[in-house]
Amino acid sequence: MSENKNEKKQAAEKQLAEIAKITDEELFQRLDTCDEGLNQVEASDRLEEYGKNIIDTGNENSLLKRVRAAIINPFNIVLLIVAAVTLVTDVIIATKPSWATFLMLIFVVAVSGIISFVQEEKSNSAAQKLQNMITNKIDVIRNGSSMEVNIEDVVPGDVVKLASGDMLPGDVRFIETKDLFTDQSQLTGESQPIEKFAGPDPEGSDITELDNIGFMGSNIISGSAKAVILTTGNRTYLGSMAKSLNTYQDKSSFERNINSISKLLIKFMIVMVPIIFIANFITKGSWLDSLMFGITIAVGLMPEMLPVIMTSSLAKGAINMSRKQTIVKRLGAIQTFGEMDVLCTDKTGTLTQDEIVLEKYMDVLGREDKRILRHAFMNSFFQTGLKNLMDVAIINRAEKEELSYLKEAYVREDEIPFDFSRRRMSVVLRDKNGKRQLITKGAVEEILSICGYIEIEGEVKPITQELIDNAQRIATENNLEGIRVIAVAQKNNIHDVETFGVDDESDMVLIGFVGFLDPPKPSAESAIAALQKNGVRTVVLTGDTEGVAINICGRLGIPTDYTLTGAQVEEMTDDELNEACEKCHIYSKLSPYQKQRVVKAFQTKGHTVGYMGDGINDSLPLKQADVGISVDTAVDIAKEVADIILLEKDLNVLDEGVIEGRRTFANMSKYLKMSVSGNFGNMFSVLIASIFLPFLPLLPIHILVQNILNDFAQLGMPFDHVEDESIRLPKKWNIPGIKKFMVIFGLLSTVLDVLCFLVLWFIYKFNCNDMAGFFQNGWFMFGIISQTVVIHTIRTPKVPFIKDRASLQLNISTLAVVIVTLIIGFTAIAKLFDLPVMIPSYVIWLAVLMLVYTILAQILKHIYIRKNHEWV
Ligand SMILES: Nc1ncnc2c1ncn2[C@@H]1O[C@H](COP(=O)(O)OP(=O)(O)OP(=O)(O)O)[C@@H](O)[C@H]1O
Ligand SMILES: [Mg+2]
Question: Which ranges does the record mark as transmembrane (predicted)?
C-alpha cells in the first residue's frame, strides 16, 4: 500500500472514531442534517459536491494503463527482445543494413497490441453496460418522508432506513437500531455477525469494533436501523482501502482451465524449442540464426490470442443474453452456466410467482376466523424489518377486509426481528388503554415450540401433545394442498420491561394459522422440463416445509419420492450427504448454512452447481455455487453476490442462458483445439524441416507474419454458430480430450506439411541454398492457408461448406486471410518479407494439398467422433 493510501486510511479511521463518540445532536449538527433528513435541494447540491456514491479503485481506468496492458505481455516482450537483437545484427553491425525484419517485428507488436486493446475495450464496455442495468435502491428519508433512491445517489447527511438484506450505502452512524446485526466480513474477513447499537460509543477504539458505526460494503443480516450517512464513495473506509466489492473473483473454473492449457503449451515449448535450436545449429552451423529461429518458433507457439478470443467470446455471449433480459455480472459465469448440470433453487419468488396470495385465515381447528388475520396483520404491518412476500400478502388482504383502522388503534413498543434460525418474528403493541400484547408469527413448528397455551373457541387452555399434533396435522394437510402455512400466537401478560428479546417469545398462546397460495410461475414447468432435456437437473432447497415443497415440485415435474429436511441433513456426515444428493431432489426447512452445505455436497460429487435464490438466506449458497443466479426483485446482498441476474419473470430464459453458455463454450473450445493442434503440429513440422533441410525452413519474420494472420483468421470465431448437437448436454473442459485432439490433428497437419515439403523439394526442386527463398515462400503460404481452411472442417461435426456453413464473420475473416496470403506470396510484396515471388503454378499445388487436407481431416473427424462420442 502506498504512503498516500495509508494516510487516507488512517484519516478515515480517525474521523470515524471521532464521530463514534459524539451525541446524535452533535452528529446532526456536524453533517448539517436532522431526523427528517435532507431536502431534495440539499441532496442534489451535495450530490454535486461529493459526486456519485461509487468506489472506483482507480486501477483499471486510465487509458494509458489499458494500452499498456494490451501491449505488455510475454509474447510481445519476447518479440521486442528479438527486435532489439535484430536491430543490432541486421542494421547496426550488418555490412548491408536491412530494416525489414526489425520493422516487421515492431509492426507485429503494434498489430497484436491494437487487436487486444480493441477487443478488450469492446468486452469491457459491454460488461459495464450490463452492470448498469442492475441498480440497487435504498430507503432514504428526505423532507421527512421516506423514498427509494439509487444507492449511487445517496449523499452524506442522508438519513436512511435499513432492514435485513440491505447493503450499507456508505459509512454510517446508527441513530436507531433494533437487534441489528451486520456482516463486516468485506472489511475484516471475520464472518461472525456483529451487533450494532445507536447512541454515542465513548470507548470504541479499534475501528471495526466501533459499535455505532456501519461500513460501506457490509450488509445487514438481521434487525433494522435508521442511520445517518457520514461519507460516500471513495471517502468511505472501504474506499480509502481502494478495495472494490468484487468478492467473487477467484472461483471461475474457466480461468483455471485456460491456465492449465496455456501451461501445457508452454511445457511443450520448453522441451521442443531447445531441440529445434540444436537441430538447426548442427545442420546449418550458425548459432545466432538458429537461436533467433528457436525464439521465434517459441513466440509463434505462444497462445497469445487466447485471452482475447476468450474474453470476446464471453462478451459476445453476455450481449446475447442481455437481449433475453439476463444480465451477466461476471463474464466467466457464462461458460460456467453452460457447464452447469445441477440447478439448485429456492422456492418462493424464484420458482413461484413474485406475488403470493393470502388464501386462508383459520383458528386452531381450521375454521375461518378473522381475528387471526387481524393479528397477522398487526405483526406484519408494525414490524419494521424487511417485508417479504408473505407480509405483503397479509397486509393486502387485511386492507381488503377493512382492517386498516388497526394501524391507528395501536402503537408499536418494540419488536423482535425475523431470523432464519428462529423462523419467526414478534411485535409488541400497545392499545389506546395502555394494554400491551406480544404477537408472534412464523413457521408452524417454531411457533409451537414457544406456545404454552392454545386458544380453542375463545378459551385459553394449556397446550397438550394431542393439541400440538392436531395443530400440526391441520398445517400439514394444507401444505399438501400447496398452501404454505404460518402460525400466529400472542400473549397479553407480558413483563413490564422496555425492550424485548427472544426470551420473551415463550409461554405464548397459539391462536391460529394463515395460509398462502404460492403458485408456481407459469413458465416454471416448461423451464424445468427444458433444462432436464438439456441435461440439467433441478433441485429445490427451501426453508419452507416439506409438504409445500412436495406439492409445488409435484406440479413442476420434479421427482418427489425422496426428500430430506434440514434436521436430517444436519445429522448426516458429509459422505452420507454426498451420496444422498444423487437421488434427492427436494430439501426442506433448510437454514442458510444447510443450503450452502447441500450445494457443496453436489460440488464434491463433481457436479457444476448453479444456485438460484432471492433472499438474505440465499447469499451463502449463492456464493458457494459455481454460478449464482438471482432475480431483479431480490434483496441487495443476493444481487451483489450473484453472477447472473434475471430481469424477467419468465424462467425459460434459464434454459436459453444455458444454451448460450454452451454455445460460447463451443466456440472457445473450437478455437482452443484448433490453435493447440495447429501449434503442436507445427512444432513437429519445424523439427523435421530443421533436421533435413540445409537452410532454415522459415525466417523469423515469416513465422511472425504467419502467426498474426492465423490469429486474425480466428477473430470471427466468437461469432460462429454452433451445431445443435454439440450443445445438448452440459460441457466441461475436458483437458485429456483436448490433449488427445491436439495430438491426432496436430500430427495430421504435420503429415500435410511433409507432403508440402516433398512437393517443394522434389517437384519444384527447391533443394539448395539458392532456392531457399522459394521453399520458404511455399511453406509460408501453405502454413497459413492450411490452418485457415481447416478451421472450416474443425468447426463442425458435419461436412464443412456443404452440410454446415460458418457464420458470415468467420467466412470473411478466413477468406480475407487466404487472399492476403496469396497476395503476399505471388506478388512483389513478397520482397518486403525477404521472399522471392512464387511461381504461379504453385497455386494449383496449394489447392490440391488443401483438398487432400480437408478430405483427410474429414475422415479422421468421422473416426474420432465415432470413437470418442464428442467433437469440439
Ligand atoms: N415474514 C415472515 N413472518 C413469519 N414467518 C416467516 C416470514 N418469512 C418467513 N417465515 C418463516 O420462515 C420460513 C423460511 O423462510 P422462507 O420461506 O423465506 O425461506 P426460503 O428458504 O427462502 O424459502 P423459499 O424457498 O420458500 O423461498 C418460512 O417457511 C416461514 O415459516
Ligand atoms: Mg426465499
Answer: 71-93, 99-118, 264-283, 295-315, 741-764, 806-830, 842-860
Cα gap 860→677, rounded to integer Å: 14
CATH class of 2-59+137-240: mainly beta
Nearest to 708 by CA among 304, 126, 278: 304
346 catalytic? Reply is yes
Of the residues 158, 171, 341, 346, which is catalytic? 346
What the block records as the C-alpha cell of 347 is 422456492
| Residue range(s) in the chain whose domain bears CATH number 2.70.150.10 | 2-59+137-240
C-alpha cell, 381: 404491518
Ligand 1 midpoint to CA 446 (Å): 12
Residue ranges of the chain that CATH labels 3.40.50.1000: 326-352+521-647
* Three-state secondary structure call for residue 417: coil
pLDDT averaged per 10 residues, the chain (length 872)? 66 86 91 91 92 69 75 74 83 82 81 79 75 79 90 92 87 90 76 82 77 88 89 84 48 65 76 88 84 79 72 85 86 88 91 89 93 96 84 94 92 85 90 91 95 93 93 93 94 79 90 93 92 94 92 93 93 94 93 92 93 88 92 85 87 90 88 85 87 87 84 85 84 83 93 95 92 94 94 89 88 95 95 91 96 95 90 76
The ligand 1 atom at the shortest distance from the C-alpha of residue 485 is 31
Testing ligand 1's pocket by substitution, the residue of 544, 558, 565, 595 carrying the most ligand atoms inside 8 A of its CB is 544
Diameter of the chain measured on Cα atoms: 114
Residue type at 121? E
Residue nearest to atom 20 of ligand 1 (CA): 543
Q: What distance in angstroms lies between residue 485's CA and the mean position of ligand 2's atoms?
A: 15
Q: Assign 3-state DSSP to the chain and report helix, strand, coil percentages, each to 5.
A: 55, 15, 30
Regarding pTM above 0.90, the answer is: no
Report the candidate in 773, 765, 650, 785 with the shortest Cα–Cα distance to residue 713.
785
Q: Cα(644)–Cα(665) distance, rounded to whole angstroms?
A: 17
Q: What are phi and psi of 748, to 5 degrees?
A: -60, -40
Q: Atom 19 of ligand 1 has which residue's CA nearest to it?
A: 543
CA atoms of 622 and 594, how far apart (whole Å): 12
What letter would DSSP give residue 589? Answer: S
Cα–Cα distance measured from residue 763 to residue 500, given in angstroms and rounded to the nearest whole number:
98
- Retrieve residue 557's grid coordinates: 415435474
CB 833 within 8 A of CB 776: no
Report helix, strand or coil for 639. Answer: helix
Write out residues with Cβ below 6 Å of ligand 1: 346-348, 388, 390-391, 418, 423-425, 441-443, 486, 542-544, 615, 617
CATH number, domain 326-352+521-647, options 3.40.50.1000, 3.30.470.20, 3.20.20.70, 2.40.70.10: 3.40.50.1000
What is the pLDDT, as a whole number, of residue 248? 39
Q: What does the alpha-carbon distance between residue 560 and residue 791 come to, in Å, rounded to a whole number?
A: 47
CATH class of 357-517: alpha beta
* pLDDT at residue 358, as a whole number: 95
How much distance in Å is there from the Cα of 252 to the middle of ligand 2? 25
In the prediction, which pLDDT does 57 show?
Answer: 55
Give 514 Cα–ligand 2 centroid separation in angstroms.
Answer: 18
Residues whose CB is under 5 A from ligand 2 (ion)? Answer: 346, 348, 615
Cell numbers given for 335: 461458460
Element (H, E) at 423: none
- CATH of the structural domain 65-125+252-319+658-868, one choice from 1.10.540.10, 3.50.50.60, 1.20.1110.10, 3.30.470.20: 1.20.1110.10
DSSP per-residue letters across 802-865: TTB---HHHHHHHHHHHHHHHHHHHSGGGGGGT-PPPPTTHHHHHHHHHHHHHHHHHHHHHHHH
The DSSP H or E segment spanning 283 is helix 253-284
